[in-house]
Structures are given as structure tokens and as C-alpha cells.
Design a protein that fits this description.
heterodimer; A: mainly alpha; 17 helices; B: alpha+beta; Ctag/Cox11 (Pfam 04442); 2 domains; five-stranded mixed β-sheet; 1 helix; 10 strands
């Protein structure tokens, strides 16, 4: 097993450094170290993954059989809403910020992030935001129950008082994301080692640079939308209230103006991760580096021009539907460029299939399935049938679970030997992959069928003809949930010990973090800029 | 570094403003394109009564609804009428309060199909102002409208819907 791992000794040019981390709990509260903050982000997102996942378990339990068995419909609505919010804002986004914190400085040869104190602040806002959001579950009126998209007037006129906690939680998450993004851009633009030109940067750094620009452009629009909700609810404005001259459909436009770039915020860093892993295990340089950069940038630009494809059923005129349909389908061109580049990178490569590669391959195959169902949804005339059915649920879980989440798990297995100095248990990692991959397809693939047959999303009960597929889906859901508890065990086991990882970690690994840093890297790395070839 | 961070910080500030700027932009966009069923207003003196296109007949249907929280019954006296483009017509809507208190409401129009909206102009409408009804008061409210002659000849039927919203606090 260890044959695929190089044992090239590396005369560690470290350990003459000054001081390690402070001791005790205050280390984590006051830290300005990018590695510590990266770790904090990753742990927060793991906790949120399990929290959001446990709500998914409630959903699948209720949908195990037709009829109402376990929870009240209103509580079911709270579960779907909070599951979506927690997974999007709590699990996926902070995990990528955590990866950015850990990896960007050691990938570009910088000693730390550009704005370390702000970095600390942008992390420590989040536990408060999510505590505030989660606490609404125990308040009178219950948690938000209007769907993670919180369409007005359901989230304004007809929402419980706890919605205000939700609004301020979203504000805090937005502030955190914007600060994190400013930090990423400032780091990448100012702190690259000499010789690390923009077009030499690893693709993970590139995709994060583009993601960070998306974040600072659209998170404030979301903040504006929830602020309008707040003033509509309490200060007599009528942004979304037709009685006062407002328009509820406008809420959807503003929300999706944020929401569509948001989905690329959650997938662009994933593209960067896959572009790092595939060349390593194919032992070939990435095919079409510059086309990857341009494809990422064009996806980002196009993402601002397609938002109303979420709104094909709002009564748009045909001209609007046609424009948004063509623009949406245009995005599949740069996305296809990426998939073909990964495949071409693997073509005739000396491939091995260690755990990170398995997750990356799982990503490529299943993200593409999610992309194809996305194409179907992007076609306006058929979207009328698919809209708000389980087909949509299947689509976005293929791109977010087997897409974004798979890339995060792949990144964990790929870089955790570098972070901790310990190899994870390869056998357990492979079990985790196959267990998750079988379960996730049992979970989400049948949802395509019930969706096409007309089962609506966000409803706690369903007609009898959907019973078998829903039971299969629920069984897959429980198995997938359990697999992630198993993942928690693997994570803890790897942190506590394991086979010593080499400095290069993987035979085919390239990049400053593998070539110039020991595993684990010292607390302060690259205090002197490394040479860049 | 400080400079670039401050410059970057300007982007979120501007985008926060842009989020709010979307509101008037949205209205302007709907106004220009006639999307969203927003009807136009026209002065009676601007209508040239000699320019009636009697060769075309369009059916106009009326809908009347009240939103939650407004104890009114609201209906058109005539449910549909056949009209010629360019001619001014009058329709009457009857509203009656079922509450014993004074109530205040505002009617909001919507035209379907959306592309007919910019050709549907009113010289007089109860929706131009707020309506206040005393307890159990009943009122017949006129609507004078003209459908422009330049309306697409694909449109043979127009539905005009009014919803009364409550303006009472609480």
C-alpha cells in the first residue's frame, strides 16, 4: 500500500523557527495563524455538516413512508429550510474558506494571510451566527419554515417573529464571507512569492481568486435583500408588498441575482481541488491550464446573467425565457471544457487510485450527472414540468453533495497528510468512499424518477405511487449519513496518529506546499519566500 | 496591502447599494417593457376619439379580489366586454365593506397577457387613489380605459385583475 507513497527524505529546512502556538483554549480564540483558522473553519463546517445532515435524516425519516408519521408538517418545513441554510452557509462555504486559509498561503509561498486579524474576526463571527440561527428552533413560532430561498411574502408577511434572528444571522454570515473574500484577494494579489506569476498559480488559488470576487459582489446583494425583508417586516416599507406598490416577484429577482453566482461560489473552488488531485494521481501535468483559468472566469461572468432561469414559471414573456435559457446553456461550454481537461489529463496517465483520487473521480462522474440534469432544467419549456419537483432536488444534490462535498472530502484526504504529518488509513478511506458513493446514488438517483413523475419538493407527504422510490431513497439517506459519522472517526484517527507522511506525500504531487515544506508544516511557514521555478 | 484591502472593501459597499438600486431599476425596466402587467395612465384630453379601429374587437375580462385582512367584498358589475382599440370605455366595480369600522384599501392592477399592459391605459381609475369606506358602506367605482390601437393583433383577449390590499395598520 505504501508503494504509491514516496519516501524521498527531505532535509527539513525548517524548525529554526521562532515559536509555536500558544497553549490552551485561548490559542484558538485569539489566533491569527492561517493554519489555525483554516482548521477552525474546517471543524465548524464538519459540525454544521453533521447538524444539517441530522435534519436531512428527519426529512428522510418522515418521507420513508407516505402519510404523516413522525413530525408535523410545520416542523418538516423548518427542517427543509434549516437543512438548506445550514448546508449552504454552514457546511460547504466555510469548508472552502477553511481550505483557502490552509492552502493559499502555502501554495503561493506567503507567510500567512494578508489580513490575519480580520481573518480571526471573520471566523469567530460564524459560531455566533449559526448559534443564533439554530436557536430559533427552540423559540415560539419555530425556526424559519419558508424554504432556504425565503421567498416573500412567506418570509415577510406570513413569517414567525424568529425570522428576525434569521435575518441577522444572514447578515453576520455575509459579513464573514465578505471579509474572508477580501482577505483571499489581498493575499493572492500582494503576497505571492517572487516568480509566482498569476499564470503559474495553482488552479485552486485561481478558482478561489475568482470565487472571492463573486463573494464580494453578491453577498452584499443578499444582505440588501434581507435588509429589505427586515424593513418590510418592521419599518413600514413595501419592497415586496404589492399593497404599497412593491412586488413579491422582485424578491425572487434580487435573491437569485445573489443565488446564482452563489452556486458557482460553492463549485469553483471544487474545480480547483479536482485540478490539483487529478494530475497528481495521473502523474501528468494538468491538461489545458490556461483554458481552465479562462473557463473559470467565464463561468463567473456568465453566472451574473442567468439568474432568472430559477424563475421560468413566474410568467416571464417568451423573449425573457429564451434569453435566460440560451445564456444558461452557454455555461455548459466552459464547464464542459473543464470536464474534458480532467479526462484528458488522465488520458494515458500512470493512474493510481488512492482515496483522494477516488473522491475526485466520483466528483467528475457524478458532478457531470448533476450538470446534465441542470441542462434539462435550463431548457425553459420542460422546466415548467420539472419546476419545484424532486427532479430539482436530485439535480442540486448531485452538484452540491457529489460535487462540492465530494471535492471537500477529496481535498481532506489529499492534504491531510501534509497538514498533520500523518497518513490517513487507506483502507478506511476506501471504505468511506465506496460506502458513501453507493449510498448517495441510492439516495438521490431515485429522486430523478419521482420528480419526473411529479412529486413536489418541500412537502411532508406524497401519493402512494411514489412510496417505493422514497423508501429506497430514505435507506440510501440513512446509509450516507452514517458514512459521514464514520468519516468523523477517520478524521480523528488521522489527527491522533498514523503512518508518517513524507514531505512530498504523494509520488506525483507538485506545488510549493509539497516541494518546500515538511509534513506537517511548521506553525509559521515561508517566513522567507521560497524559490519559484 | 492596506490600500488594496480598502479598495476591495468598496466593492461590497457599492454592491450593497446596487441591491437597493435594483428596486427602481426593476420598476423602470417593467415600465419600459410593459412586463409585470403594470398598466399605464393617460389624460382624457390626449385621446383622439376619431381614431377608433372598429375593424378589431378585443374581449376584456375583469377580475376583482381582496387580499387578506381587508373585510370588503369587491366585484365588477360587468364581467367582460368587447371593445375596439382606440375607444374609451367605462367599467364599474362595486365594493362593499363587511366591517362596522372605517377601513382603508388600495387597489393594485395587473394585466394579462403582460405584453398588453403597456397598451392598456386608463383616464380614470379607483386604483389611482386610496379608497376609504365607512362601516358597511357600499360604493360603485368607475374605471375609464382605452386600449391603444398599436396593440399587437395577436392579442384577442385581455384580462384586467384588481386586488384590494388593506392599508389599515395592525
Amino acid at each position: 500500500m505504501s508503494t504509491e507513497i514516496t519516501h524521498g527524505g527531505h532535509d527539513a529546512h525548517a524548525d529554526h523557527d521562532h515559536h509555536g502556538p500558544a497553549k490552551g483554549l485561548m490559542r484558538w480564540v485569539t489566533t491569527t495563524n492561517h493554519k489555525d483558522i483554516g482548521t477552525l473553519y474546517l471543524w465548524l463546517s464538519f459540525i454544521m455538516l453533521l447538524y444539517g445532515g441530522s435534519m436531512a435524516m428527519v426529512i428522510r425519516l418522515e418521507l420513508f413512508q407516505p402519510g404523516l408519521q413522525w413530525v408535523e408538517p410545520h416542523f418538516f418545513n423548518q427542517m427543509t429550510t434549516m437543512h438548506g441554510l445550514v448546508m449552504v452557509f454552514g457546511a460547504i462555504m466555510p469548508a472552502f474558506v477553511g481550505l483557502a486559509n490552509w492552502l493559499i498561503p502555502i501554495m503561493i509561498g506567503a507567510p500567512d494571510m494578508a489580513l490575519p486579524r480580520m481573518n480571526n474576526w471573520s471566523f469567530w463571527i460564524l459560531p455566533f451566527a449559526f448559534t443564533m440561527l439554530a436557536s430559533t428552533t427552540f423559540m415560539e413560532g419555530g425556526a424559519p419554515a419558508f424554504g432556504w430561498t425565503f421567498y416573500a411574502p412567506l418570509s415577510t408577511t406570513f413569517a414567525p417573529d424568529t425570522t428576525d434572528f434569521f435575518i441577522f444571522a444572514v447578515h453576520l454570515m455575509g459579513i464573514s464571507s465578505v471579509m474572508g473574500a477580501i482577505n483571499v484577494i489581498a493575499t493572492i494579489l500582494n503576497m505571492r512569492a517572487p516568480g509566482m506569476t498569476l499564470m503559474k498559480m495553482p488552479l485552486f488559488v485561481w478558482t478561489w481568486l475568482i470565487t472571492a470576487y463573486l463573494l464580494i459582489a453578491v453577498m452584499p446583494v443578499l444582505a440588501g435583500a434581507v435588509t429589505m425583508m427586515l424593513t418590510d417586516r418592521h419599518f413600514g416599507t413595501s419592497f415586496f408588498d404589492a399593497a404599497g406598490g412593491g412586488d413579491p416577484v422582485m424578491f425572487q429577482h434580487i435573491f437569485w441575482f445573489f443565488g446564482h453566482p452563489e452556486v458557482y461560489i460553492m463549485i469553483l473552488p471544487a474545480f480547483g481541488v479536482i485540478s490539483a488531485i487529478v494530475p497528481t494521481f495521473a502523474r501528468k501535468p494538468l491538461f489545458g491550464y490556461s483554458s481552465m483559468v479562462y473557463a473559470s472566469a467565464s463561468i463567473a461572468i456568465l453566472s451574473f446573467m442567468v439568474w432568472a432561469h430559477h424563475m421560468f414559471t413566474t410568467g416571464m414573456p417568451v423573449a425573457g425565457e429564451l434569453y435566460f435559457m440560451y445564456a444558461t446553456i452557454l455555461i455548459s461550454v466552459p464547464t464542459g471544457v473543464k470536464v474534458f481537461n480532467w479526462v484528458t489529463t488522465m488520458w494515458k496517465g500512470s493512474m493510481t487510485f488512492e482515496t483522494p483520487m477516488l473522491w475526485a473521480l466520483g466528483f467528475i462522474v457524478m458532478f457531470t450527472i448533476g450538470g446534465f440534469s441542470g441542462l434539462m432544467l435550463g431548457v425553459a419549456p420542460v422546466d415548467t414540468q420539472y419546476h419545484d419537483t424532486y427532479f430539482v432536488v436530485a439535480h442540486f444534490h448531485y452538484v452540491l453533495v457529489t460535487g462540492a462535498l465530494y471535492s471537500i472530502i477529496a481535498a481532506f484526504y489529499y492534504w491531510v497528510p501534509k497538514w498533520t504529518g500523518h497518513m490517513y488509513d487507506e483502507r478506511l478511506g476506501k471504505i468511506h468512499f465506496w460506502w458513501s458513493t453507493i449510498a448517495v446514488n441510492v439516495l438521490f438517483f431515485p429522486q430523478h424518477f419521482v420528480g419526473l413523475a411529479g412529486m413536489p419538493r418541500r412537502i411532508p407527504d406524497y401519493s402512494l405511487q411514489f412510496a417505493e422510490f422514497n423508501m429506497i431513497s430514505s435507506i440510501g439517506g440513512f446509509a450516507f449519513g452514517l458514512a459521514q459519522v464514520f468519516f468523523l472517526y477517520i478524521v480523528i484517527k488521522t489527527i491522533k496518529g498514523g503512518e508518517k507522511a513524507t514531505d512530498q506525500v504523494w509520488e506525483g504531487a507538485t506545488g510549493l506546499e509539497f516541494e518546500h515544506l515538511p509534513s506537517p508544516p511548521p506553525y509559521h511557514s515561508f517566513t522567507e519566500a521560497p524559490p519559484v521555478k | 496591502m492596506r490600500v488594496s484591502a480598502l479598495k476591495l472593501a468598496m466593492i461590497p459597499v457599492l454592491m450593497f447599494g446596487f441591491g437597493f438600486a435594483l428596486v427602481p431599476l426593476y420598476d423602470v425596466f417593467c415600465d419600459i417593457t410593459g412586463l409585470n402587467g403594470k398598466t399605464g395612465r393617460i389624460e382624457a384630453s390626449d385621446i383622439d376619439a376619431t381614431q377608433v379601429d372598429t375593424s378589431r374587437t378585443i374581449e376584456v375580462r375583469f377580475l376583482a379580489n381582496t387580499n387578506t385582512g381587508l373585510p370588503w367584498s369587491f366585484e365588477p358589475l360587468v364581467k367582460k366586454m368587447s371593445i375596439h382599440p382606440g375607444e374609451v370605455y367605462e367599467a364599474v366595480f362595486r365594493v362593499r365593506s363587511t366591517s362596522d369600522k372605517a377601513t382603508l384599501g388600495q387597489a393594485v392592477p395587473s394585466v394579462s397577457p403582460g405584453l398588453a399592459a403597456q397598451h392598456f391605459n386608463k383616464t380614470e381609475c379607483f386604483c389611482f387613489t386610496q379608497q376609504e369606506l365607512a362601516g358597511f358602506e357600499s360604493r360603485d367605482m368607475p374605471l375609464r380605459f382605452v386600449v391603444g390601437r398599436d396593440i399587437s393583433d395577436k392579442i384577442e383577449q385581455i384580462t384586467l385583475s384588481y386586488t384590494f390590499f388593506s392599508l389599515d395598520q395592525g
